[in-house]
Design a protein that fits this description.
The protein is built from two helices and no strands. The chain is mainly alpha-helical.
Length: about 50
């Protein structure tokens, strides 16, 4: 479960970083938004699997 959460957060953060590089943003908005989305998604997945 820990590895699954790490992978979800890592993939979302990587995609955010890629979008920041592609659109050449001055601040890392995509990385911040998608990494938070990854955290919430990982928590949701963990809660769903515990039921």
């Amino acid at each position: 479960m820990v590895v699954q959460m790490g992978v979800i957060i890592g993939v979302f953060t990587y995609v955010g970083h890629y979008l920041d590089l592609k659109f050449d943003t001055s601040k890392k908005y995509w990385t911040m938004i998608l990494s938070l989305a990854g955290v919430f998604g990982a928590i949701y997945q963990m809660i769903r699997s515990l039921r």
